[in-house]
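dude i think i finally got it to work??
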Amino acid sequence: MDARPILFTNGKLIDPNRTRVREEELLVVDGKIAKRGTGLKGHAPKAKVIDLSGLHLSPGFIDIHVHLRQPGQEHKETIATGAAAAVAGGFSTICCMPNTVPALDDPAQIEFVLNQSRSANLCDVRPFGAITKGRDGKELAELHLMHEAGAVGFSDDGVGVASAAVMSRAFQYAKMFDGLISQHCEEPTLSGGPMNAGITANRLGLAGLPAAAEELMIARDLILNRHIGARYHVQHISTAGAVDLVRRAKAEGQCVTAEAAPHHLLLTDAACTNYDTNTKMNPPLRTDADVQACIDGIADGTIEVLATDHAPHAQEEKELEFDRAPFGIVGLETAFPLYLEALVHTRRLSLAAMIRLMTVNPARVIGLADRGLLAEGSRADLTIFNLDQPWIIKPAAFKSKSQNTPFAGKSVRGRVKMTVVGGRVVHDEIASR
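look at this
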């Protein structure tokens, strides 16, 4: 491996802590950002020089919500193939959910993920531990021991914690060590439908999953946590009512954050009209009013994090009937241009503001203070991209094991050209430009 310093020149640097995009040089030495500015060649005369003319450089993207399926469902994805997909999409750190087989519900399982991440040697994979043993919602898992082993937070993602008593205990326990409780917000007695409840579901003859299922659980959790004050994170928010609940809780001073996924910013339940199972996800695609409310929530700071909810499934599973096929789509390799389309090209956010939601904000939520920055002395996790490059989404070219996306064949603009993790180039399309 080439361990020389790297000098990035002629690029436009996007620092999420600054509003202006600046053309600066950036020097990486021993895995860290050594200097940034101009005229840096003299500080490292033997450095490898990478010319970024026409390109932007930002901190490495961070995705705090992905599914890597290992252990137990390696035919869909592994930690190694998920990491390869991540770096192709510009992500230097990703956080995997615990709905594996068995669930990530004890320190040994957390250590397994971290060991697999080190073996893959691509992006940094950090696991979430389960809130309850086996994700069955009945008994708290070993939260503190998993935290000590390296879990960045806790979730029963795929299902919500139905019991108010169990959730209250989770908040109380996590509060003792400043742990993060991240909730899949779905009231189970209202679930069961494969798509959003509404006119489209009625027309298709399918059962509906109502917005109230998401909103009831968020409201309950906010009430439970009001006087506990644990760190609470709402996963894949999708309804106007949910955004309003989080907005009001923030105004009251509650410790709550929220994330949004690309598909909930670009698609509505009308996409399900042809029974395409690649449009089946949980929470489901909602209405245009919900899409606009999520975008408004991002623009006003209610939603602080962009996360993909990357959920790979084998082709034969997605070829089942709509109501039998599994929920979820892949997203790591397509997220960046889709976020640009939903937020920057529509002028709802500046590019720097969008990058903030993909870097420093998620780093803060999961407690990784050395990520999401371009400060001297920080870990050299970097993403380099061409903001204007057009391309067509072709699932057959994905690094992921799975290809389940509703965006196949879509023309997009903005492409990741290089990903650097801890000073190592782990994805490089610049050499071939």
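The chain has two domains: 6-57+378-428, 60-366.
im so relieved honestly
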